[in-house]
Design goal:
Elements lengths: L22 H4 L2 H16 L5 E3 L9 E6 L11 E14 L3 E11 L5 E8 L2 E7 L5 E7 H14 L16 H9 L1
Antiparallel strand pairs: 1-2, 2-3, 3-6, 4-5, 6-7
Bound molecules: zinc ion (ZN).
């Protein structure tokens, strides 16, 4: 496995729409290797819980979710899954603001910025699993939050597009706030 370089703003690639894969492509060695490398790349950071292929310069609709306890969210239960061609097909409840950051969106200090982004508490997501099988299921909680962020990446949307510029805080401000 290889740790890949993560693109950061203002990379134009991050704005590209990711291409859907055919079911047969999901199981190819090329795609398996890319997924393994993205997992390695997430593992190398301390806070990340998901990453989409476009963030490592491959605009393919691949989102790797790797939820694990982080310094700010020590109670998270580990959860690993790769979503291909993920789309939100339905939502439930009203959007509520949730803190998030992204290793591709950095401030002047070159560190990730943070903001509270309105996200649905529950979504229905349609995707292909690692075997190329079509699935559609309801998810809620932290996974629903992470998936909304990753699915935005597939459409070239960054979380900072969804909030007022004044709501974006620096890495240092965020981590000071979380310690309180
Ligand atoms: Zn992100």
């Amino acid at each position: 496995m290889t740790k890949l370089e993560v693109l950061t703003t203002p990379s134009r690639t991050l704005r590209k729409k990711s291409q859907f894969l055919k079911a047969a492509e999901v199981k190819t060695e090329r795609v398996r290797q890319l997924v393994a490398d993205i997992r390695e790349t997430i593992s190398a950071g301390e806070y990340g819980v998901g990453m989409s292929a476009v963030q490592v310069g491959k605009p393919l609709a691949i989102s790797v979710v790797m939820i694990r306890p982080t310094p700010n969210r020590p109670d998270l239960k580990p959860f690993n899954r790769t979503y291909f061609n993920a789309e939100v097909t339905d939502t439930e409840g009203d959007k509520t603001p949730m803190w998030e950051g992204c290793c591709s969106v950095v401030g002047d200090d070159d560190k990730p910025v943070y903001a509270q982004v309105p996200r649905y508490p529950k979504i229905q997501v349609k995707y292909l699993d690692e075997n190329g099988d079509a699935r559609e299921e309801w998810v809620d909680g932290f996974l629903a939050h992470v998936l909304q962020h990753e699915i935005d990446h597939l459409n070239g949307t960054l979380f900072t597009d969804l909030v007022d510029a004044s709501a974006i805080i620096s890495y240092d401000e965020y981590h000071a706030l979380m310690k309180k």
